[in-house]
Specification:
heterodimer; A: alpha+beta; SH3 type barrels; 4-stranded mixed beta sheet; 3-stranded antiparallel beta sheet; 5 helices; globular; B: mainly alpha; Amino acid/polyamine transporter I
């Protein structure tokens, strides 16, 4: 790793452009969400290091900004079981690789924790419609 | 041989799939009211759809991602959200118009009021999304939609004055008694009928459903470059057929039935039956596609799993968005709102919203790191940019014209 690359061939300082809004696929190629925001840690020497990918509506809301963003977050928060606004964190160690189109995980989507709404919709609505099994 | 068959099938599907309630209504109304003086708008819209449809298909096949991913990446989350919300509302409006169209076609065939058909059609639309394979939806109805070729046959039976038709196309003159704002409003309606947002999303998402890759570029190009223009010509035939029959008698088109009068005049009952089959297929397919398009773009914006290649329980959120769209569209039609008016409003608002989709397509089709040697060439870029300027002007003019003319009255 040289000073100006991150080990993924991505120049430092370009994390936004290269990561934000990429589609996230799990190790079985199932879509599990979008890179809605990024989480950085500040090292003792002051340089930021990407620590996690944030995913889900509570991560997207602040990026929408304005009143729309506030509404988005407050609706998303109420949809969560524990009223906790912290979005889903996907640790950087669980990321396999990233290219110009997608970000691929080493783990399955159900372990990433982004499929809660999908499971709820499936169990409460889709499975109850004939033919939804 | 199989490849050629597939290619032909694809092109024929694209022709049938291009025409929906928007084309039927706008071509019929403008032919009856303005003769061929607005044919240029139809041709311009079709050219734009062909150009951007091919770009969208190319981006999909090369990057293997549908257009709404690109919309979010290139417009940013906020502007893309505006596009998403606008497109979702338009899809409901379009779906309502298509359901109304199916209802009117069934009413013409059965003499049972269209409103009684609406809930049944709404249910069938949902059932097709829920259970029927993608290829059946796309192919069967696209092919049945070719029954609308009956308008071309009628045109030859009607002792059409070809010379007058051609000179009407080449030298457009606003007919006496019609105001310029109204004429421009209907010009926008024709452009909008060719550039419906759901068709772009469906074309591109359909490419993912059918697992397009770089090897399918030829097939995709044939669909877009041959199928769409021929679909546009079919719309032109519907307009032209109205001119000798409806315009001299000052019959205005307020109902889908009046669009079909030229066919009945030329070919009688047999023509009527074939035409109704075409009306039904074209509007029903479009109803299914516009509802599915809502599921596609919502899922693509938010990164959900989607599509008909997986079981409903693997893409439950996609199916619920489709279901909600169908319920809203059906409910809206049940308010007894006039289907023809809904169609007009939906196509002009579609024309106003389309730049938000075409801009990212144009940008990404130029991204050489993503598209490699399949990026846009100079000519396509020049045409694409010129058309983008036109469509932005259209977008700006739409709302004022909609209000000034009271939706074309």
């Amino acid at each position: 790793m040289t000073a100006d690359t991150s080990g993924w061939g991505i120049p430092v300082g370009y994390a936004n452009e290269f990561l934000l809004d990429r589609e996230i696929l799990d190790k079985d190629d199932t879509p599990v969400g979008k890179v809605d925001d990024l989480d950085f840690e500040i090292l003792p020497d002051g340089s930021p290091v990407l620590s996690a990918i944030l995913c889900g509506p509570t991560a997207l809301g602040p990026r929408l900004g304005g009143r729309l963003g506030t509404w988005w977050v407050s609706i998303a928060r109420r949809l969560r079981p524990n009223d906790d606004p912290t979005p889903v964190h996907v640790g950087i160690d669980d990321v396999d690789h990233v290219d110009r189109e997608t970000l691929r995980l080493r783990i399955t989507g159900s372990n990433a924790g982004t499929l809660r709404l999908q499971r709820w919709v499936d169990a409460k609505i889709v499975k109850r419609i004939p033919g939804g099994e | 041989m199989k490849r050629l068959l597939n290619l032909t099938l694809g092109v024929m599907t694209a022709i049938g799939g291009f025409v929906d309630i928007g084309n039927l209504v706008t071509s019929g109304i403008t032919g009856a009211r303005f003769g061929m003086s607005l044919a240029w708008a139809l041709l311009l819209g079709t050219a734009g759809m062909t150009l951007y449809g091919e770009m969208a298909g190319r981006v999909t096949a090369v990057s293997r991602r549908p257009i709404f991913h690109v919309v979010r990446e290139r417009l940013g989350v906020r502007t893309a959200m505006v596009n998403l919300v606008a497109s979702l509302l338009l899809n409901v409006l379009t779906l309502a118009a298509e359901i109304g169209g199916v209802g009117l076609a069934l009413a013409l065939a059965s003499s049972i009021n269209y409103i009684l058909w609406v809930p049944i059609i709404g249910f069938l639309v949902w059932f097709f999304i829920w259970k029927v394979p993608f290829a059946v939806i796309e192919r069967v109805f696209g092919l049945l939609g070719l029954a609308l070729m009956v308008f071309v046959v009628a045109l030859f039976h009607l002792h059409t004055h070809w010379h007058a038709l051609a000179s009407g196309i080449v030298n457009p003159v606003v007919p006496s008694g019609e105001g310029h704002p109204t004429w421009w409003f209907y010009a926008i309606s024709l452009i909008g009928a060719a550039l419906v947002p759901y068709q772009v999303f469906f074309f591109s998402s359909g490419g993912i459903e059918e697992k397009w890759s770089v090897e399918h570029l030829g097939e995709m190009r044939a669909n877009a470059l041959i199928g769409f223009p021929l679909g546009g010509l079919l719309s032109l035939a519907i307009m032209a057929a109205a001119v000798p029959v409806l315009q001299p008698r000052s019959i205005g088109v307020n109902h889908l039935g009046e669009v079909g009068l030229p066919v009945i005049a030329a070919l009688g009952k047999v023509g009527l039956i074939i035409m109704l089959l075409g009306f039904f297929a074209a509007t029903f397919a479009a109803a299914v596609e516009s509802a599915m398009s809502s599921g596609y773009i919502t899922a693509q914006y938010l990164g959900w799993s989607w599509g008909k290649q997986v079981r409903p329980s693997q893409a439950p959120r996609f199916h619920v968005v489709c279901l909600i769209t169908v319920l809203l569209g059906t409910a809206f039609m049940l308010t007894t709102v006039d289907p023809v008016k809904v169609t007009l409003v939906s196509v002009v608002l579609g024309a106003a919203a389309i730049p938000l989709t075409f801009f990212p397509i144009l940008v990404v089709a130029n991204d050489r790191r993503l598209m490699g040697k399949h990026a846009n060439g100079r000519i396509v870029n020049a045409l694409g940019f010129a058309f983008f300027v036109v469509i932005v002007a259209v977008s700006v003019a739409t709302l004022p014209l909609l209000f000034i003319t009271k939706a074309g009255q």
